Amino acid sequence: MATRTCFSTFLLLVVALESIIVMGITLPQCRPIVANDDDQIQFALNMEFLEAEFFLFGALGKGLDDLAPSLTQGGPPPSGGRRANLEPMIRRIIEEFGSQEIGHIRAVTQSVGGIPRPQLNLSAEAFAATMSRAMDTKLSPPFNPYVNSINYLLASYVIPYEGLVGYVGTIPSLSLVASLLGVEAGQDAVIRGLLFERGDETVSPYGLTVANFTNRISEFRNQLGMCGVKDQGLIPSADANSLSYSRTPAEILRIVYGTGNEHSPGGFFPRGGSGRIAMQMFQ
Ligand SMILES: *[C@@H]1O[C@H](CO)[C@@H](O)[C@H](O)[C@H]1NC(C)=O
Ligand SMILES: *[C@@H]1O[C@H](CO)[C@@H](O)[C@H](O)[C@H]1NC(C)=O
């Protein structure tokens, strides 16, 4: 009898544990939203704008307003972007990424319609704030993404990866999304590769290595996303088609707003994202 009670208690425990695990994956803040494909693809444009402007400014000192003004659909110019002090090879790569982003925004705009470029904050201060939070310490002097290649790559590791997971969260089987995903995954792999090569280098003057930074940044993204571990540092990147790495729009906004709250804009999007999905969340 005692054994049976014990066994049923054990069974109950297993069932309880299982439902906790199941609840864990369907926590309200982690559920996929109900939205049509066009809205979801347009949502990803927010991240494309952020990447496009950050890459173009970093490489060239100018952005969409100079290079492809019609794509901005009248959205306000970004604040605080500037030409970064990059090694020639890195500058060429980043310029290429910027051109790819222009191509993405154009492709999405032609296929499902564009959205106005959201207000973006690309200032060194916005990156410093995010990086200090990620590193869980007030970095002094404040982190500046524009001063050298390592800092720029670390900053690229903070944001553009969200462009990739943003698409994985949509419908990967749509051919447009599939092709954009391929390019985003390629960019992510290149940035990871460049950082991985430099993993043991010190990020001056903080006395921490590149690997220290990337590990913390990954933890931080998981923390703000609040839906479990979806980011594992410089371990070879997730397969672009692996849904295990997908994030919902709300998770992405919690990260890029830096507030941990999709209803409360801030960080790189001081007035919030553009398009139906993002705007509904802060209204
Ligand atoms: C950009 O972010 C910095 C740091 O948080 C802030 O001081 C600045 O006012 C922001 N600029 C805009 C246009 O929101
Ligand atoms: C930085 O990385 C080294 C080597 O992996 C580790 O021993 C050290 O604890 C890390 N420091 C911080 C602050 O994370």
TrEMBL record:
InterPro entries: Pigment-catalase-like
Signal sequence bounds: 1-24
Keywords per UniProt: Signal
Signal among keywords: yes
Protein name: Desiccation-related protein PCC13-62
Domain of life: Eukaryota
Pfam families (UniProt xref): Ferritin_2
